[in-house]
Design goal:
The complex is a heterodimer of chains A (113) and B (115). By secondary structure, chain A is mainly β. Chain A is 0% helix and 58% strand. In chain A, the strands form 2 sheets. In chain A, strands 2, 4, 5, 9, 10 and 11 form a 6-stranded mixed β-sheet that branches. In chain A, a hairpin with a 6-residue loop joins β9 and β10. Chain B is mostly beta strands. Chain B is 0% helix and 56% strand. Chain B starts with a strand and ends with a strand. The chains are: A mainly beta (113), B mainly beta (115).
């Protein structure tokens, strides 16, 4: 089965700085890689995703990059703001795997004023 | 109501109690999921339903019993749970299970405490 590792587990940045969270996956058959943001008391919310036929995707201040050869993908948040503080989860889906998400262990991001 | 709703939001139960968690999605989706979220661990997929039929049981103990009466509603019946079952239980939905429908929409979760 798929295994996803996520680093770091906690990340503290100053407001305005960039934040990068990295994930690696084990199964080369994975083809879909979403990132979820979970705020306190809420369920995870999809913020950006990328498919295996694309190397990079950007949406305003957030971007995701995918290196299929190395089997890793990263979330980049630029110009961080206090409202970016949350837990971020990466995930992977195996091709033909029935849409089962395998999640990383999460990164607690804190944006300090 | 929009999106995915879950009730109750908090539940405290004894080990001998029977309780049920409810999930409802207002998105017109056909696939629904139960996940368990414990501290310091990845979200664990428990069950998957597609068009009311169970397509995945991820080796979940029988003290957890899912029910999906229609594509909009999903229940998780709980019976004789253990303290280690205390966690946040999340429901999610997606349009289907095909690769074109990978995005899953999550509810706010039920925080379960087993005494």
């Amino acid at each position: 089965g798929e295994n996803v590792e996520q680093h770091p587990s906690t990340l503290s940045v100053q407001e305005g700085d960039s934040a990068v969270i990295k994930c690696t996956y084990s199964d080369s058959a994975s083809n879909y890689f979403p990132w979820y943001k979970q705020e306190l008391g809420k369920g995870p919310q999809l913020i950006i995703d990328i498919r295996s036929n694309v190397g990079e995707k950007k949406d305003q201040r957030i971007a995701v990059t995918l290196n299929k050869t190395a089997k890793h993908f990263s979330l980049h948040i630029t110009e961080t703001q206090p409202e970016d503080s949350a837990v971020y989860f990466c995930a992977a889906v195996l091709t033909g795997g029935g849409n089962k998400l395998t999640f990383g262990t999460g990164t607690q991001l804190k944006v300090e004023l | 109501e929009t999106g995915v709703t879950q009730t109750p939001r908090h539940l405290v139960m004894g080990m001998t109690n029977k309780k049920s968690l409810k999930c409802e999605q207002h998105l017109g989706h056909n696939a629904m999921y139960w996940y368990k979220q414990s501290a310091k661990k990845p979200l664990e997929l428990m069950f998957v339903y597609n068009f009311k039929e169970q397509t995945e049981n991820n080796s979940v103990p029988s003290r957890f019993s899912p029910e999906c009466p229609n594509s909009s509603h999903l229940f998780l019946h709980l019976h004789t749970l253990q303290p280690e079952d205390s966690a946040l239980y999340l429901c999610a939905s997606s349009p289907g299970l095909a690769p074109a429908y990978n995005e899953q929409f999550f509810g706010p979760g039920t925080r379960l405490t087993v005494l």
